[in-house]
Amino acid sequence: MNNLTLEDIAEQTGVSRSTVSRVINNQSNVSEKVRSRVLNVIQNTNFHPNAAARTLASQRSWTIGLILPLSVSFFFTDPYYPNLTKGIAQACNQNNYTLAFFLVSNKEDEEKMYPRIARKGFLDGVLVQSGHHGDQGIIGTMIDMNIPTVVIGRPFRSDNVSYVDIDNINSSFNAVSHLVRLGHKKIGIITGPLESTVGIDRLEGYRKALTERNLSYNENLVVVGDFTEPGGYYAMQKLLLYKPDAIFAASDAMAMGAMRAINDAKLRIPDDIALIGFDDLPMSSYSNIQLTTVRQPVVESGIRTVETLIDIIEHGSKHPQHIILDTKLIIRNSCGANRKMMV
């Protein structure tokens, strides 16, 4: 039994390797019930942690880097990112890690960042906010430097890297299908940037919903946005020329911009145009017309990326981990469903 690994203990106790490690290291953020179960298995199997691994662990920096590439230039203005960072910081605190930020605003920043990250003992691992085609270079460099890495959002090349994401295609499909079920036939979309996997996947879900519901795909009803409120406003102004009866906006921020453009055009939501967003950020339920939206677990995504990275740091990883979190369509006033149910 002395050849048991942390994976064996985790399997026998029904918990993750990270949880077993936290019990062994006597960290506080484990319930007493789980701690007792793990300790019982350790005692019964006469398990002893690998001494060399423990020595290596003691030499770690207990610091995780969060890299925010140039493609995330609206980090400080998009409410999605503070919620994501909240989850990341919460998980770091719970696991006794320090979080270091790397804001990459240009190629020069990127080149200066690499020697710092590669410095021995500086970081135990990195998180990369990605999904944009231009971020592949940063991800590839992290892998080449053999630094434990987890990507937030599916990267364009995902075969050799771990990431945490949601099913953007299915989530978008469900939102647009809901509009079709409500009787809408001329449904427009404000997409995210099509240099990103998020923008591409949410557009794909839109197309899939139209195809399966026997509605034609009209390029005039597709406008590319940039995940910002002003971007949603200008995209909606273009869509209004083609008189859509419903809009799916690929983010709540863009949906709020679309809502403002619809109001400025003296049209009513949902009577003239139904509207669905994506994210379920706090602002979506604070407006006068509460927004129907796809709720994604933004804070949980931050937590899971940190937990996945710690798992890789502490135990290594034979294969990249691809973690897909669930979403839920939250029905409020803007799609008109509540009004139809009352009729």
What's the helix-strand series? HHHHEHEHEHEEHEHEHEHEEHEEH
Q: What's the number of helices?
A: 13
Helicity range: 40-55%
**CATH homolog superfamily of the largest domain:** Response regulator
Structural class: alpha/beta
Multimeric organization: single chain
Instruction: Sum up the overall morphology in one term.
Output: elongated
Number of separate strands: 12
Strand content: 15-25%
Distance between the termini: 68 Å
Largest sheet: 6 strands, parallel
CATH topology value of the largest domain: Rossmann fold
Widest beta sheet: strand line-up? 2-1-3-4-5-11
Tell me what the CATH architecture of the largest domain is. Answer: 3-Layer(aba) Sandwich
What's the gyration radius in Å?
23 Å
Give the C-level CATH assignment of the largest domain: Alpha Beta
Number of domains: 3
Residue stretches low in confidence (pLDDT < 50, at least 5 long) are none
Structure description:
The protein is an alpha/beta fold and 343 residues long. It has three domains: 6-57, 434 Repressor (Amino-terminal Domain), CATH 1.10.260; 61-166 and 298-326, 3-Layer(aba) Sandwich (Rossmann fold); 168-297 and 329-342, Rossmann fold. The protein has 13 helices and twelve strands. The chain has helices spanning 6-13, 17-24, 32-45, 51-58, 80-94, 107-118, 136-144, 168-181, 197-212, 229-240, 252-264, 298-315, 337-342; strands spanning 63-68, 98-103, 125-129, 149-152, 162-166, 187-191, 222-224, 246-249, 274-279, 292-295, 322-325, 328-330. It is elongated and about 70 Å long. The N and C termini lie far apart (68 Å).
